[in-house]
Amino acid sequence: MAVSTEAGQLTDQAAELLDLYQQMAVIRRTEKAANDLFLAGLVKGTTHLAAGQEAVAVGASAALRPDDYVFATYRGHHHAMARGASPEACLAELMSKSTGLCGAKGGSMHLTKADTGMLGSYAIVGSHLPMATGAAWSATLRGTEQVAVAFFGDGATNIGAFHEALNLAAVWRLPVLFVCENNLYMEYTPIGSVTAVANPAADRASAHNLPSEVIDGNDVLVVRDRMSEAVARARAGGGPTVLEARTYRHYGHSRTDPAKYRPEDEVRDWMARDPLTVTREQLSRLGIGDGPLDEADQRADQIIAAAVDAAKAAPGPDLGATYTHVWAEESTTWRT
Q1: For residue 94, which of 106, 85, 86 has the smallest C-alpha distance?
Q2: Is 275 domain-assigned?
Q3: pLDDT at 179
Q4: Residues 6+ apart with CB under 8 A from 226
């Protein structure tokens, strides 16, 4: 359906792309707000920002059903929001507020929204890949045609769980996708300096007899289209796929990292390929001028400004909830 704006009527294609742009703009501003709140002393603990990697989360989510499963890393704010978590809930969680996405129990590295299939962000590198494989096995046993997706960094490809998960998924032809967000660095170390292959995820997929592809992770349409193909294959019983999305984080590894180890020309070249810039250029080629884009940016600004205000004003966590969620049935009594 075409969308109307003050600038006029948009085609279906332009309207869809503009919506993807606004989703990425909201995520980008949420990450900027998280950084500002951290520097102001309002975020406790560290944060790992995904600014620059928005196209992977938004493009992938556009290819998924609402009941599909997503597993992310500690750099997972963008995936939580792409799967329906609000900026306010995410920022409140980072600020340890009762209105936070996890009620202040998770913080930056454990954002989870199970009711939309976002089954968590995980601080232990590579630990969630077998979990995604298990979720896909569950979907197969239940006959639901759900797909599970594990998003992980390039560094996780050197973890044993990566190979264990791929092998079992391949043997059982499970509906699980393995999506590597290759931002070129495992913390502070260039992935290429410690890995024997050029493409750490895609080049290893053949060892498990899995199809793979290296894609432009800064192009939201490329991510959406390649994910759609892999998702359709998985739902039809074709088994897993490994996608390696080349992208780049705009901040350091965490908030204690100024990222001075990255070459200036590398940073400059990747910043020129900012996902928001790429999408604006695509919209321009579709005949969309600055008007609708400016409106989308203004809406994103308003959403984040309201989210920051609400998160700041929210009460702290209820200490009485400390012992809830200890057991699955909500009991708080220790069991032996």
Answers
A1: 106
A2: yes
A3: 98
A4: 213, 215, 243
In terms of Cβ atoms closer than 10 Å to its own Cβ (0-12, 13-18, 19+), residue 287 is exposed
pLDDT tens digits along 3-35: 444 445 678 899 999 999 999 999 999 999 999
Identify the residue whose tokens are 């129990």. 105
Tokens of 178: 């393995």
Of 136, 155, 133, the residue nearest 146 (C-alpha)? 136
CB 254 within 8 A of CB 46: yes
The pLDDT of residue 332 is 66
**pLDDT score, position 323:** 80
Pseudo-torsion of CA 205, 183, 178, 66, nearest 10°?
Answer: -160
287 is a domain residue: yes
323 part of a folded domain:
no
* Cut 0.85: pTM above it: yes
* Spatial CA neighbour of 109 closest among 124, 87, 99: 124
What distance in Å separates the CA atoms of residue 64 and residue 290, rounded to the nearest whole number? 30
**For residue 122, what are the domain limits?**
13-310
Whole-number pLDDT of residue 257: 87
pLDDT in tens, 109-128: 999 999 999 999 999 999 99
Q: Whole-angstrom Cα distance, residue 283 to residue 179?
A: 26
233 pLDDT higher than 70? yes
Number of domains in the chain: 1
Give the tokens for residue 289.
Answer: 């001028």
CA pair distance 20, 271, nearest whole angstrom: 19
DSSP state at residue 258: -
Here the CATH number for the domain that contains residue 88 is 3.40.50.970
**DSSP alpha helix (H) spans, 123-274:** 128-142, 160-171, 202-205, 220-235, 264-271
Q: Strand 185-186 vs strand 241-246: parallel, antiparallel, or unpaired?
A: unpaired
Measured CA to CA, the distance from residue 70 to residue 49 in angstroms comes to: 18
The answer to whether position 66 is within a domain reads yes
CA distances for 277 relative to 85, 218, 239, 261, 332, angstroms: 24, 9, 34, 25, 50
